[in-house]
Amino acid sequence: MALLAYVKSLFILQLLMGFVFVVSGLIINFIQLCTCILWPINRQLYRRINCRLSYSLWSQLVMMLEWWSGTDCTLYTDQATVDKFGKEHVIIILNHNFEIDFLCGWTICERYGVLGSSKVLAKHELLKVPLIGWTWYFLEIVFCKRKWEEDRETVFAGLDRLRDYPEYMWFLLYCEGTRFTEKKHQISMQVAESKGLPKLKYHLLPRTKGFTTTMQCLKGTVTAVYDVTLNFKDNQTPTLLGIVNGKQYKADLRVKRFPVEDIPDNEQECANWLHKLYQEKDALQEQYNKEGKFPGPTIIPPRRLWTLLNFLFWATLLLSPLIKFACGVVVSGSPLLIIGFITFLIIASVAIRRLIGVTEVKKTGSSYGNQEAKKQN
User: How far is CA 191 from each of CA 59, 278, 308, 360, rounded to the nearest angstrom?
Assistant: First the structure.
């Protein structure tokens, strides 16, 4: 085990895996660009193709979590809820406390066949991130600047387009709007106090506008809301760098299904329902911290080989010519070629590190309620 952990920590292996992800992502983005000609001819065919192309990219990250780091994902829910997974359009509400919360969500999506068609209400800044933002653009992800006056038309139009989506989709909402930090939590609870709302201990005050708007626009399309509360065993604080280094984590996800008929249509009542839900989520986190588990039965969905086979396909396709080229550079003895190749490796490692930085808590999130940050902006 110690030898395996050492091998996983080798920088050269991590760099090669990063190379496969980046280059395959660029190839996939180019193919996605070519599929745009299908949009005016056959929109549903365009969508089905892009679902599979995005799967080919995102499943490489899922492979890192499942097969490289060996992270376990345990569901706390009933069998009746699991039986509906991947068989209906749903809205997912997930707490935003961890760097890899999106990756755990993608893992469950993959195991139930909806990874390629998964959606998210994403901040507009991510559209500019290579590979991630570009793939999401072709996948019709709804981007917002979190300024309702500017977002209204864009969000309504984006959600309305998804009403006839041909693949079952899980639409993820981070209702807190930004990732949890202690500073943001203090500011958020000041807002809660000013609005006369109960304070939360483990969550930020949810932003209701995104949820109520999504419910309104996708009414008749989505049949349920899945409330997902994520935590990790032994007070672990997982990071994407930890996953890259092969560190194993144990994720617990409590899932509760709410039929849309049980959620109020009225905007204010719907917002109140969401606030009450987050109070329940807070109580669940309190219970988890005391007992080390969520209540209810557990289900561990089995890993699928597709993620591993997909990565091996891309690795075989891309690493063979790279290794041949590297050997040719070394054999040539040309200082210019060797320096050029080393420069390429340095640039590649910096680029991969910057992509990882997108997920880091200290480098992400908004200045929600932060008057000092607003003044600086």
Answer: 39, 15, 45, 25
For the chain (length 377 residues), average pLDDT per consecutive 10?
Answer: 80 87 94 97 97 97 95 95 96 93 95 96 87 94 84 91 96 91 92 91 93 94 97 92 92 97 95 96 95 95 95 95 81 79 73 61 50 38
Which residue type sits at 361? V
Instruction: Give the DSSP letter of residue 1.
Output: -
- SS3 annotation, 6-55: HHHCCHHHHHHHHHHHHHHHHHHHHHHHHHHHHCCCCHHHHHHHHHHHHH
| Bridge partner residues of 255 (DSSP) | 228
User: What is the radius of gyration, based on Cα positions, of the chain?
Assistant: 22
CA distances to 71, 228, 271, 328 from 262, in Å: 34, 17, 13, 65
Three-state DSSP class for residue 73: strand
Give the pLDDT score at 360.
55
**What pLDDT was estimated at residue 54?**
97
Angle between helices 43-63 and 306-332 (to 10 degrees): 70
How far is residue 189's CA from residue 205's CA, in Å, rounded to a whole number?
7
DSSP string, 269-312: HHHHHHHHHHHHHHHHHHHHHHHSS-SS-EE-PPP-THHHHHHH
* Dist. CA 18–CA 273, nearest whole Å: 42
246 close to 17: Cβ distance less than 8 angstroms: no
Neighbours of 145 (CB within 10 A): 13
Which of the 8 DSSP states describes residue 178? S
